């Protein structure tokens, strides 16, 4: 018996109640006695569900305003569907972000708070909900965090190791050979544009690129950014190959969702609660339902994907989870505005990055609470400058900071952060001007601080943070690297 089958059997026979924290929807007695009848009762119009996940992709493609990347397939997907301008993950690190998607619960409730951590076994997972609706549920590539896929209860999964190049090709091969008549929910995870990036720029011209805000302009930085875009183009090809197969094999009654687990592995992106870390490209295509070339400003979170898929599959959005369905906007309900506020959390990635923070974001304001401002913020980028591709340029930032005041301010903002940050996103979308100490915004600060505190209490967000924090800045060029 395959691991996915074993995991599914285990979830079907164990208690699904997480000590009062989770209120999952169990299969009805009739559905368990007669699954075929349950599938039939859901009706023949249930769409196939295709979820394609990028790895470490920020809003660095044309539909979201970045003209650097060559990504024609993603542009085509946006032209055929709906672009979400304000979609956010629950946490800006791989494991907690993906666990939130696959459970509909925020990190403190599902147990995957630190990177590398998996959700608790007693928490019900997305495949179980879709199984109740008669779906075959499969995963290829990086869908959960590396080699955690078996615990989620997929019917079948393949190639979930680090940067396994066969992840997307295996999904295409499997689709072409499939003859099952059940509706299908297929999750496809690319490893691009996660580091290591391609060794060459693959046609991108470093000097011609427009660099992101808060980026010192050095030659090695431009080269790194060009190789990041080369990785984005590789992702785009995988998206195109997958969509071609999906259209041929599954046909028009297919819902497609594309998104990314968090922002790019770039300073102020991944591992951060700035929008560059938590706001992610999200595009939906659903022929006959979603207006081609449309956009929505509805604020949605990755925890909302689970109840949305259940809703589209003919089920009732589960009670007791943190997610809420955004299916109304997909069905053309212009009154649907999404969430009034977005909450995000981050704890640590081992001991390389130990910097717990919490955030609440409204349509206009962003409030970040850095729980331990006495810590020095560090990541693989500045700690592993010899071993991690995205960090090889960081010493050039530190060198530039010696003589360039703007570079110095950027490097200091990377390493050292105050206890509270407040940004007016309407006037300062790049989150450069912290207004927390400005008395003119004391009322806004107080309100957002109270809302975040109340939410944390409701979530039970009181667990200790793992890892050993850093109290000094990262290594200079030539220093020994961590083991």
From TrEMBL:
GO terms for molecular function: arylsulfatase activity. The keyword Hydrolase applies. InterPro entries: Alkaline_phosphatase_core_sf, Sulfatase, Sulfatase_N. Residues 456-483 are annotated as: Disordered. Residues 458-473 have a biased composition (Basic and acidic residues). Belongs to the sulfatase family. This is Arylsulfatase A family protein. It comes from Sphingomonas aracearum. Keywords: Hydrolase. Pfam families: Sulfatase. Residues 47-314 form the Sulfatase N-terminal domain. CDD domains: SGSH.
